[in-house]
Amino acid sequence: MAKRTTNRPQKRLTFIDIIKGNFLNRDEIKIHYKYFLLLFVLMMAMIYSNHLVNKKIRIVNALKEETEEYKSRNAYAQSKLIKVKMESELGKEVAQDSLMTLENHPHKLLIKLDSTDAKAK
Questions:
Q1: Mind telling me which residue stretches traverse the membrane in this protein (predicted)?
Q2: H/E run at residue 3
């Protein structure tokens, strides 16, 4: 005697079935496995491309910081160069007026007043 095939209604798909992975054993899924495989491959490609974009963003940020550092170094070097040029021009002008640069710095004179002298005045 042949077995009679009965059409049992499929059990409803619940959230716990999805978490456990029991939905993969259903007949509908077995029929359309190619589409699910395609979705899986597309999701993996999307995750990988996102990973590459994040790497490039980190590289760009590092390059921006390095650029800012070089800009500040350049500005500092230019200001020093301008000061040196001004000092050399000033030295030429002083030499024309036959003035000499000081070898020793000038001394500051401090005058202290006694309290008795201040009252007498």
A1: 31-48
A2: none
Q: In the predicted model, what is the mean pLDDT of the chain?
A: 83
pLDDT digits (tens, 9 = 90+) for 13-35: 788 887 887 777 777 777 888 88
Q: Which two tokens stand for residue 98?
A: 């036959």
Which H or E element spans position 12? none
Residue 61 binned pLDDT confidence (cut-offs 50, 70, 90):
very high
Q: Decide: residue 102, CB within 10 A, 0-12 exposed, 13-18 middle, 19+ buried.
A: exposed
- What does the H/E/C string look like for 47-101? HHHHHHHHHHHHHHHHHHHHHHHHHHHHHHHHHHHHHHHHHHHHHHHHHHCCCCC
Nearby residues of 26 by Cβ (< 8 Å), 6 or more positions away? 10, 13
